[in-house]
Design brief:
Helix content is 46%, strand content 24%. By secondary structure, the protein is of the alpha+beta class. The protein has one domain: YhbY-like (Translation Initiation Factor IF3, 2-Layer Sandwich), CATH 3.30.110.60. The radius of gyration is 13 Å and the shape is globular. The model is unreliable at 1-5 (pLDDT under 50).
Length: 92
């Protein structure tokens, strides 16, 4: 297998996740340790995770601020932010 195959496979995973519903939701309790851990587990297992930020969690921060914070904390790459949803992928 050459390097191009691995990158294409990774891009396909990202594309698939972008078209699916979010796997993790951040609700009124905000960005708790439990939510961070759930995102971490999903990233380790599936390499890509889509996260929905519910309106009740947006009292203190904006979606892109939350997404950036999660990506930094988990050492993940922020792939996409659309509306109240963001997508992360595990860094290689």
């Amino acid at each position: 297998m050459w390097l191009g195959d691995e990158e294409t496979l990774h891009e396909k995973k990202v594309g698939k996740v972008l078209s699916e519903p979010a796997k993790v939701r951040i609700g009124k309790s905000g960005l708790s340790e439990g939510v961070i851990e759930e995102i971490r587990r999903t990233l380790e297992k599936e390499e890509v995770v889509k996260v929905k930020v519910l309106r009740t969690a947006l009292r203190e921060a904006r979606v892109d601020d939350i997404a950036t914070r999660v990506a930094k904390e988990l050492n993940a790459e922020l792939v996409d932010v659309r509306g109240h949803t963001f997508t992360l992928k595990r860094k290689k």
